[in-house]
Design a protein that fits this description.
Largest sheet: none
Order of helices and strands: HHHHHHHHHHHHHHHHHHHHHHH
Radius of gyration: 27 Å
Mean pLDDT: 78
Number of helices: 23
Distance between the termini: 54 Å
C-alpha cells in the first residue's frame, strides 16, 4: 500500500505494521517480531473450525423465523452485551495508545498534523476493538450467507460501526478524565472503569438473581408490560434498531453506519486539540512535584516492617494494569455480599465456600505480585535489612487486604449463624495464609507485566494453589453444613478436606524452591 508520507493512510500503514509485529510478542519481550508460522496456522485452523461449527448451528436453526420478536430481543441483547465488553477493551486500548506506547511525543513534535495522528490512533482503537468479535461472529455470517441468508453479512458493518462508536466514547471518556483528574490518575481510573464495564453483565445478572420471590414476580410483570406490542420496549421501539441492523434490515443498517461515521468524524475533527492538551499533561505528569509548603519532612520514624508493608501496597496502586486485573476478582465478591446480607441460612455452605475460594484466589494473585514479581530482589538481598522481616512484611502485605475485605460479611455471618460464621472465618483465614505461603515457597520469579500469563511460567505454584483453594473451599462447605446439622457425610468430608489442605501444604514445602 503506497501512500504519501505524512498522510492518514501512511500513518495507518505504520499502525497496522505495529499491530502485526506486536501480535507475535508478549508484553514482557523487549523486541517485536512477526507472528510465527505455527501461531498463524493454529489461528487459521481455529477459524476454520469455527466455520464448521457455524454451519452446523445455522443449519440446525434454519427453521427459526427471524421476524419473531423474541429473536430480535435475543440478538439485540447479544449486541448490547458485547458493547459492554467492547467498552472495556476500548478503554484499555485508549490508555495504551495515549500513555504507554511512548511515541506520541516524537509524533507531535514532527511536522505531521495532530488531527491525522489522532484520527489514526482513534481508528486503531476502533479496529482493535472490533477484531476479536469479528473473529468469532464472522463465521456465522459466512455460514448464513452460504445457506441463503445474505442479510447475515450485516455482521461486518454492524460490528465495525458499533466498535467505532464505543471507541469514540472510550477516547472521549479518557481525555475527559485527563482534564478532570490528571493524566496519572486517569491511567488507573480508566483501567478500573474498563474492568467494571467488562463485568457489568455478570453483576446485573447476579443482582437480578438476588431478588425475592415477590420482587421477581413484580419484575416479570413489569417486563411483560414493557415488552408488549404497545409498550415502551415493544417490537417497534428504537431500542431494537441495532438488533434490526444486525439481522440485515437495510434502513437500520444504513442508519447505524451513518451514525458511526458521523461520530468518528466529529470526534476526530473536534477533539484533536483536546487530545494534544491531554498528551501535554501526560508528559508533564512525570516531572518532579512542587516543593511542599513548610519544607520537606522525612518520615523515618516508621519501622522497617511498616515501611515494607506500605511500599508494596504503594507499588500496586501505581500500576493501573495490575489494579484492573485485581479489581475483576474483587467484583466477583459483590454477588456473595448480596447473598450474605439477604439473611438466607439455606445457602450458608455455598457462601462460606465461595468466600473461601475467592479470597484464596485473590491472595494468590497479590502474593505473586508482591513476592514473585519483586522489581528489585537483588537490592533487597544486599540491603542490611533482616531477611525474615522483609519476608514477613511481604506475606502480611499479601494476606491483609483480603482479610480486611471479608471482615464485614464474616462478621455478619457470625452474628446471624455463629457456628457457621466461625467455621467460614477459620476456613477463609487458613486458605488466605496457605495461599501466600505456597507462593512464597514455590513461586517462580517473574515480571509484573506477565501477570495475566503467570500460570504458564509457574505451573507448579498454580496447581498447588488450585488444590489449596479447593481443599479449603470444601472444608468451609462441610463446616457450615455441620453447624446446621452434622451428618456422617459432612463429617467425613470435612476430615478429607482438612487432610487435603495439609497434604497440599506438605507438598509445597517438599517442592519449595531454593532461596538465595
Amino acid at each position: 500500500m503506497s501512500a504519501q508520507a505524512g498522510s492518514i493512510a501512511w500513518l495507518l500503514r505504520h499502525e497496522l505494521r505495529l499491530m502485526w509485529f506486536s501480535a507475535g510478542s508478549s508484553k514482557s519481550e523487549k523486541s517485536q517480531r512477526r507472528p510465527g508460522l505455527a501461531g498463524l496456522a493454529v489461528v487459521g485452523l481455529a477459524w476454520l473450525a469455527l466455520h464448521a461449527i457455524a454451519l452446523f448451528v445455522v443449519w440446525r436453526t434454519a427453521g427459526i423465523d427471524l421476524r419473531d420478536p423474541r429473536v430480535l430481543v435475543a440478538v439485540s441483547a447479544l449486541l448490547y452485551g458485547s458493547m459492554t465488553f467492547m467498552l472495556s477493551s476500548a478503554l484499555k486500548s485508549s490508555v495504551l495508545v495515549l500513555f504507554e506506547r511512548g511515541d506520541l511525543d516524537l509524533l507531535l513534535s514532527s511536522p505531521l498534523p495532530s488531527r491525522s495522528i489522532f484520527t489514526v490512533r482513534l481508528g486503531t482503537v476502533a479496529a482493535g476493538t472490533a477484531a476479536l468479535y469479528l473473529f468469532f461472529l464472522a463465521p456465522f455470517a459466512h455460514a448464513g450467507a452460504l445457506l441463503g441468508h445474505v442479510g447475515w453479512l450485516a455482521v461486518y458493518p454492524v460490528l465495525l460501526g458499533t466498535a467505532t462508536i464505543v471507541a469514540c466514547a472510550a477516547m472521549l471518556m479518557t481525555l475527559g478524565l485527563v482534564r478532570l483528574i490528571g493524566a496519572r490518575r486517569t491511567r488507573i481510573v480508566a483501567q478500573v472503569i474498563g474492568a467494571l464495564a467488562g463485568a457489568l453483565i455478570f453483576i446485573l445478572s447476579q443482582l437480578f438473581a438476588q431478588f425475592s420471590r415477590s420482587m421477581e414476580t413484580r419484575a416479570a410483570a413489569a417486563f411483560a408490560r414493557a415488552f408488549a406490542e404497545d409498550g415502551a420496549l415493544g417490537a417497534g421501539s428504537p431500542v431494537w434498531l441495532p438488533g434490526r441492523a444486525l439481522l440485515g434490515e437495510p434502513l437500520p443498517l444504513l442508519g447505524l453506519v451513518a451514525l458511526a461515521a458521523a461520530v468518528f468524524v466529529f470526534t476526530a475533527a473536534r477533539t484533536h486539540r483536546f487530545f494534544v492538551h491531554g498528551l501535554q499533561q501526560a508528559a508533564s505528569s512525570s516531572r518532579a512535584a512542587r516543593r511542599p509548603a513548610g519544607g520537606l519532612r522525612f518520615g523515618f520514624g516508621r519501622s522497617l516492617f511498616t515501611t515494607m508493608l506500605l511500599k508494596e501496597w504503594r507499588l500496586i496502586l501505581r500500576d493501573p494494569q495490575l489494579i484492573s486485573h485485581v479489581a475483576l476478582q474483587l467484583i466477583y465478591l459483590l454477588p456473595l455480599f448480596f447473598i450474605i446480607f439477604k439473611r438466607s441460612e439455606v445457602q450458608l455452605p455455598a457462601m462460606a465456600a465461595g468466600l473461601t475460594l475467592l479470597c484464596s484466589s485473590l491472595t494468590a494473585s497479590l502474593a505473586w505480585i508482591i513476592l514473585s514479581a519483586e522489581d528489585a530482589p537483588d537490592l533487597l538481598r544486599l540491603s542490611p535489612a533482616p531477611p525474615g522481616t522483609v519476608r514477613n512484611a511481604k506475606l502480611v502485605a499479601a494476606v491483609l487486604p483480603c482479610l480486611v475485605l471479608v471482615l464485614a460479611p464474616l462478621a455478619w455471618l457470625i452474628v446471624r449463624a455463629p457456628l457457621a460464621g466461625l467455621g467460614a472465618a477459620g476456613a477463609v483465614t487458613g486458605a488466605v495464609c496457605a495461599s501466600a505461603v505456597i507462593v512464597h515457597w514455590c513461586g517462580r520469579p517473574g515480571l509484573r507485566s506477565d501477570y495475566v500469563a503467570r500460570g504458564k511460567g509457574d505451573l507448579l505454584s498454580s496447581i498447588l494453589g488450585m488444590f489449596n483453594s479447593l481443599s479449603w473451599g470444601a472444608l468451609a462447605w462441610c463446616l457450615a453444613s455441620i453447624a446446621a446439622g452434622p451428618t456422617d457425610r459432612t463429617v467425613v468430608g470435612a476430615a478429607f478436606a482438612a487432610m487435603g489442605a495439609l497434604a497440599t501444604l506438605g507438598m509445597s514445602r517438599l517442592f519449595r524452591r531454593p532461596r538465595p
